[in-house]
Amino acid sequence: MSTTPLLKVKNLKKHFPIRKGMFGKTVGHVKAVDDVSFFVNEGETLGIVGESGCGKSTTGRVLMRLLEPTEGEIEFDGKALTSLSLEEMRKTRRDIQMVFQDPYASLNPRHTIGKILEEPLIVHGISDSKERKKKVNEFLEIVGLNAYHAKRYPHQFSGGQRQRIGIARALMTNPKLIIADEPVSALDVSIQAQVLNLMQDLQKEFNLTYIFIAHDLGVVRHISDRVAVMYLGKMVEVADSEQLYEKPLHPYTQALLSAVPVPDPDFQKEQIIIEGDIPNPADPPTGCTFHTRCPFKMDICTKVTPQLTEQSTGHSVACHLYESQVDNDIKQLEGSL
Ligand code: SF4
Where does the ABC transporter domain start and stop, copy by copy (predicted)? Predict the structure, then answer.
């Protein structure tokens, strides 16, 4: 795995306007992604984890510009994606592909698998039909299916097979980056492991870079080199996979991790129950947005937003418990009152 970033994201925001009344007046914003910065190195897997509504899927869509960012910079393979024209972005999508949670919903039920897999090749200008068919057969076999499956329809496959087709479709244009949005969440646990193993094998074979989005830290553990934890549109902790699982710092990460079952029950940590529901992203809590549910809440937490700061090499957290700046913040706060 290289240490050259393939993707660099700086201060990314995606705010959706809330409109009301006959004239659609904007009365507020849902801050789905709120000032997020991160990078992904070539050949690595970054897991992005959080509860539904935390902004992880929106982040994936904004990276592909399926949704336009409100603010921020996205640099992919040396290109500033946010300044590309729609036509240039369409060409660049050849290098960035997505795998979706529900492969059935993303596969056209009226098309054969062969036609579905040929489509990205047609879009990206591979006009020779023989060449396309050869590639379809080749990729069906690469993902563990057979060439004769090209003549079948999506409903003739199991959930796991359909996800293999979704992965084959993403691979058809030889992408560099694959954004996998909850790719195994809809599958049985035994099938999940098979699909994860397949994704790992393909990563090695094709030197792929992955962003792997999931709501469960257990699922991303083995596939991710680094993990970013999101809460209400912000990244609250980023670390190497090993560090994050061995020594989670943010109270939210600690709670998510305590809910992951371990093979030996003697080593199961006591589950930390997070009280309450995820707050309304249209009206997020002040200061640290996790303060309404945090068992370690301090006065400063309701007033000052903690910044993501590095605690040890590659391990950053946004929490006042770890800020050496905490005294300064309190003084700053007292000064502003
Ligand atoms: Fe909890 Fe405060 Fe840390 Fe937020 S900043 S996670 S409320 S201790």
Answer: 7-257
Two structure tokens written together for 152: 């079948």
User: Considering the chain, what percentage of its residues have pLDDT values greater than 90?
Assistant: 73
What atom of ligand 1 comes closest to residue 320's alpha carbon? 5
The least confident of 2-11, 102-111, 287-296 is 102-111
- Residue 42 Cα to ligand 1 midpoint, Å, equals 33
Q: Show the ligand 1 pocket: residues with CB < 6 angstroms.
A: 250-251, 288, 290-291, 294, 296-298, 301, 306, 319-321
| DSSP codes of every residue in 94-147 | TTEEEE-S-HHHHS-TTS-HHHHHHHHHHHTT---HHHHHHHHHHHHHHTT--G
**Cα 150 from Cα 292, distance rounded (Å):** 52
pLDDT in tens, 39-86: 999 999 999 999 888 999 999 999 999 999 999 999 999 999 999 999
pTM of the entire predicted model: 0.91
| Structural domains of the chain, ranges and CATH numbers in brackets | 5-95+173-278 (3.40.50.300), 113-168 (no CATH)
